[in-house]
Amino acid sequence: QKLKDQETMATPNLHLPSAAAEPLQVIGAGLGRTGTDSLRLALNELGFGPTYHMCEVLGVPGTLGDAYKRGHVDVWAELGEAGGEADERTWDDLFRGYRSAVDMPSQVFAVQLAEKYPGAKVVLTVRASAGVWHESINAAWCRFSKGGMSNWLDQAFFDYRGSEYFNFFLPFERRFRRQNAALEGVFRRTLGGPYESTYSTGRICSDREYAVGFYEAWNSYIMKNIPEERLLVLETGDPDTGRKLGLFLGLDEETAGAYEYPHANSRRLFAVVVAIGRIEAALTLLPPLLLYLAGKKLWRRIGGVVGRIKQD
User: Fold this and answer.
1) Nearest residue to 109 via CA among 69, 144, 82
2) pLDDT, tens digit, for every residue of 203-253?
3) Which residues make beta-bridge pairs with 52?
4) What does residue 311 show for φ and ψ, rounded to 5 degrees?
């Protein structure tokens, strides 16, 4: 059962010893769709929030920080385009007000962040297998990714949301795509080898064998570059996840054992997100439709007036 007393969960004894000195206490290094949103919720519940996550960049209702208002989508795009190099001031400004960071876009910089914040602990979330991960991404954000869509309707909405007309109403879409393209470049440079010239989100969505290799290469990169004593490899489908995370973060055995790990951002929920995106896109078609109907009605009225004049 989840801990009932949320105030007790947020007391100082649940924080890392370095909490006062380190802006970031926990860094998530796991790829998207490995349970990063569940980890975000868990860290927030255990007193290590607010937690930076793609939700914060997008300004999703219910998020705790102000990354969306501060235009972080543009900052991440500039960071990626500059080669992923950032000075200490940039990192401190990005994570001002946050205690943890998981998921994209921060995840691709996990090793750099671990060097910048040596007191922070690192959590590498994983799935039961690379194949399970590939199935999960295809049911989720591959439906929004260039080259990764498996049906014509997803492709049609993707193309439309990239149009000049759509971005006249919702310019954030273009900024978001710029960020994602820049972060793909960081992945290529970070992993190097065969991925330096071939990696793209579309490729890992459409090519299962390639995706499995990429997934394993990323996890190996993290485990190689993060000291073992600072790293927890966490399979979020493991029924013992809550206890393992709690102990890693410094909770006592009894408290950690009582914590029920949350599970969020399921495939069903992502289907709702897709539907909302389509409704949002469809709504931008209303202005020209209304203008057309109004114009048609006006033309009929004009025709009627002209007809009466001729009769007179």
Assistant:
1) 82
2) 998 899 999 999 999 999 999 999 999 999 999 889 999 999 999 999 999
3) 101
4) -65, -35
Q: What phi and psi, each to the nearest 5 degrees, are found at residue 178?
A: -60, -45
Query: Which candidate, 103, 14, 38, places its Cα nearest to that of 238?
Result: 38
pLDDT at residue 16 in the model? 32
Q: Do 133 and 34 form a contact (C-beta atoms < 8 A)?
A: yes
Enclosing H/E stretch for 235: strand 231-235
**pLDDT for 162 beyond 50:** yes
pTM for the model stands at 0.79
119, 230 in Cβ contact below 8 A?
Answer: no
* Strand order across the 231-235 sheet: 51-52, 100-101, 26-28, 121-126, 231-235
How many C-beta atoms lie closer than 10 Å to residue 124's C-beta?
22
